Amino acid sequence: MKIERIELREIKLPLVTPFETSFGRTYEREIVLVKVYGAGEHGWGECTVGENPFYNHEWANGAWTLIRDFVAPMVLGKSFDQPEDVPALTNKIRGNKMARAAVECAVWDLAARQQGKPLWQLLGGVQEEINCGVSLGLEDTDAAMLKKVEKEVAAGYQRIKIKIKPGRDYEMIKTLRKEYPTITMSVDANSAYSLNDVALLKKMDEFKLLMIEQPLAYDDILDHAELQPQLQTAICLDESILSEADARKALALKACRIINVKLGRVSGHTEARKVQAYCHARHIPVWCGGMLEAGIGRAHNIHMSTLPGFTLPGDVSASKRYWTEDIITPEVTVSPQGKIARPAGVGLGYEVNEKRIEALTVRTETITA
Ligand code: OSB
Ligand code: MG
What we know:
Layout: E1 5-21, E2 24-38, E3 41-46, H1 60-75, H2 86-90, H3 97-114, H4 119-123, E4 129-131, E5 134-136, H5 142-155, E6 160-163, H6 170-179, E7 185-188, H7 198-203, E8 212-213, H8 221-227, E9 235-237, H9 244-252, E10 258-261, H10 269-281, E11 286-288, H11 295-304, E12 328-329, E13 339-341, E14 351-352, H12 354-360, E15 361-368
Parallel strand pairs: 5-6, 6-7, 7-8, 8-9, 9-10, 10-11
Antiparallel strand pairs: 1-2, 1-15, 2-3, 4-13, 12-14
Helix pairs in contact: 1-3, 5-6, 9-10
The structure holds 2-succinylbenzoate (OSB) and magnesium ion.
């Protein structure tokens, strides 16, 4: 394979409802899209960075510059056999995995199109449908939270994840649990707590949560290893797992019992498959996390989620929960049983709506070999 041209495009896309986590509130997404060209075909990737460097070190404007100045020159014009060879072309770059993943994922789509296969087939996906949950952002009142839970339970989602932060945790979850004693529920702290909060975190065992996601620092596996044996509830690591090597360390230290795989966070499909395989061999369940992706990123997540071991419901849910109109057709829909069917078409298996993308575009840049 050889990449002849990379097009960068930034779009602005308002969320239908703002999304609040312990690190901030998002009203509108700024999304960097990547289109790669090779041998008369093209492939799409979506950079999963946030608008600011609060979830991790990366952010949209930084990712744009990094892809343009470093990732693109390292990939363009190079001959390689398969998409698995792309990470090695860019691994001189430290960190910046979401920026690198945007290009790597686009190359996977390109390879699938060149071979006339659906992406899931190229990845080795086995599941015909994927299990879906939702991630619910923070609301100021418990009444507003309850309303959101009610809506998503009625829609059929298999698991409800609630964002928590200090001051919006124990009492709020208690209220939700009282109303919904039997639904599968989890919480996500996005690193808002420390080992000083062990007593509070232990108290949450009474809610029989499926997991508590990333309670402690984003870069700290060791403190999670100290916390996990003190809790009945399973810890799931999100921010702390950037690679198969991190998964190995977290499992060796028993820092978690579940791992959230985010394509961008681990630098793309190649590494995501390694994390999945490592966990699967050790009977550690994984699930696909979300980063408020538009359709291209969402489609990549769906393909990844067909791999064995993605058994727990992920954060990948219907397009309409995020956007008045998505950038792919058909939009992603979820069945009343809370499942998404894997697409049958070539590559991503969804049509990229270039007209819609053009209308949302705030800047473009083309880089050639
Ligand atoms: O921690 O999983 C997270 C969104 C932005 C940043 C981090 C996270 C999230 C979500 C949203 O939980 C998942 C989604 O619906 O895409
Ligand atoms: Mg998370």
